[in-house]
Amino acid sequence: MTVDLAVARTRLADARAEATARVASLEDQHRAIVEGSRWTTDDDEHDPEGSTIAFERAAVASMLRDARQDLRDLDEAEGRVDAGTYGTCEKCGREIADARLDALPAARRCIECNALRR
């Protein structure tokens, strides 16, 4: 069975829209945290009531890095569509199941190779 290119492109476009929206939201959150901390003199490092501003900033920054990596992974997946290798495991050469590609459109490996980390 070969990968339907129209389905692959739609799958990737949908994932790109989600990732782009996630990046924009996280950038807004990060900006708000930084801006908010600029105007406060609170000693949040010793506040027993909750997380610190530094922790929140670091958490959002980490999620933002992940979301940007997702976009890069989707770019690479689009390249595989163009090259005719989308949906083929980069390790064993077998087909990646549609269910896996639906869940992870930028998947490079079949579930078996991913589970074995080979």
Automatic annotation (TrEMBL):
Matching SUPFAM superfamilies: Glucocorticoid receptor-like (DNA-binding domain)
Keyword Zinc-finger: yes
Zn finger spans (dksA C4-type): 89-113
InterPro entries reported for this sequence: Znf_DskA_TraR, Znf_DskA_TraR_CS
Claim: Zinc is one of the keywords in the record: yes
Annotated Zinc finger DksA/TraR C4-type domain residues: 84-113
UniProt keyword annotations, A-Z: Metal-binding, Zinc, Zinc-finger
PANTHER family to which the protein is assigned, alphabetical: GENERAL STRESS PROTEIN 16O, RNA POLYMERASE-BINDING TRANSCRIPTION FACTOR DKSA-RELATED
Name of the molecule in the record: TraR/DksA C4-type zinc finger protein
Organism listed in the record: Rhodococcoides kroppenstedtii
Lineage, top ranks: Bacteria, Bacillati, Actinomycetota, Actinomycetes, Mycobacteriales
